[in-house]
TrEMBL record:
Residues 15-69 form the XdhC- CoxI domain. It comes from the Bacteria. This is XdhC family protein. SUPFAM superfamilies: NAD(P)-binding Rossmann-fold domains. Coiled coil: none annotated. Residues 169-311 form the XdhC Rossmann domain. Pfam families: XdhC_C, XdhC_CoxI.
């Protein structure tokens, strides 16, 4: 399963290439509560078919009625991009299913250039970060490969959206926990790879759609070429596999680097890396462990839920409160226990 943004762009390109008229809608601004964040996209075909979303469904229905022939409407116009706003009044907010006080502004691109979308997808599939700028007065889109993520913006003249390749997860160790974590990551749109130098572990892997690599994890991490949309998680419980892989991962820009283990194992890992590999507390600051949020998990499936929640929080730029930290939660439990 790929990310919804890539799915929308890929579907829009395919529809355009097949000769259909297509509307590409992007959430440009939100005020108050909103079901979808800025930059969210949907593609609408002239016959009413939709992929992606910009709201909980009611605004999509309105766009279908306004701009397609699915219900006998006028179809998609041949015009420059338009800005439309929903939810300005309480009545509209209620009618379109927006939360109380929510307002949503969309940019509608009518039949964007399929060659431009095709080139954009080629760059994204090659692992590049691409800045797409759309001139609102005529709809012309320009693309530029960039190394720096940029916040989505729309100033009334240009829409600027920096799009990246799909998020990736590299798992070190092909055990049961890795299978559960891989399944959840695939469901959330990540491309997943697993590496293990032990052929018998890879041979027993049961999750379809995962890139399996047999090799020493530090070599695999190096070849993986992590970027800002990569997370690397060591779950083998074997220091011979995990330690060097984590050291290699810390040399790159992955947004999440962590290793499974108890508080004691995590402390021992840090001490080992400092003593034998010339690391410092500062150089290990990005290394997470124990990983996950505290939900009292015991089984591999529950632990995977815990870890995936923390990964998604990091991906979305959410600072989790200390109360959900495994370390702090368990320390608080210990302090709350009566003295013997």
């Amino acid at each position: 399963m790929e990310s919804i943004d890539l799915l929308v762009l890929r579907t829009a390109r395919d529809w355009l290439q097949a000769g259909h008229r297509v509307l590409l809608a992007t959430v440009a601004h939100t005020w108050g509560s909103s079901p979808r964040p800025v930059g969210s996209m949907m593609a609408l075909r002239a016959d009413g078919r939709v992929v992606g979303s910009v709201s909980g469904g009611c605004i999509e229905d309105d766009l279908i009625h306004r701009y397609t022939d699915a219900y006998g409407g006028p179809g998609l116009p041949d015009s420059p991009p338009q800005q439309v706003r929903y939810g300005v009044s309480a009545d509209e907010a209620h009618r379109f299913g927006l939360p109380c006080g929510g307002t949503l502004e969309l940019i509608l691109e009518f039949s964007p250039c399929w060659q431009s979308l095709s080139h954009l997808l080629e760059q994204l599939d090659s692992g590049h970060l691409v800045r797409r700028q759309v001139a609102l007065h005529d709809g012309e889109a320009t693309l530029r490969v960039t190394a720096t993520p940029e916040q989505f913006s729309c100033d009334g003249q240009y829409l600027v959206n920096t799009l990246g390749p799909g998020y990736r997860l590299l798992l070190i160790g092909a055990g049961a926990l890795a299978e559960y974590l891989a399944t959840m990551a695939l469901f959330n749109g990540f491309r997943v790879s697993v590496c293990d130098p032990r052929p018998e572990y890879i041979a027993g892997w049961n999750v379809a759609g995962v890139d399996c690599r047999v090799g020493m994890p530090d070599d695999v991490v190096r070849d993986f070429a992590a970027d800002l949309r990569t997370c690397i998680v060591a779950v083998s419980h074997d220091p011979k596999l995990d330690d060097l892989a984590l050291l290699e991962a810390l040399q790159g820009p992955a947004f999440y680097i962590g290793a499974i283990g108890s508080r004691r194992n995590s402390q021992q890992r840090r001490a080992r890396l400092i003593e034998h590999f010339e690391q410092t507390p500062a150089s290990l600051a990005r290394l997470r462990g124990p990983i996950g949020i505290y939900i009292g998990s015991k089984t591999p499936a529950e632990i995977a839920v815990s870890v995936m929640a923390e990964i998604l929080a990091a991906k979305n730029g959410v600072d989790l409160p200390g109360a959900v930290s495994v370390t702090k939660a368990k320390q608080a439990q210990e302090l709350a226990q009566p003295a013997a």
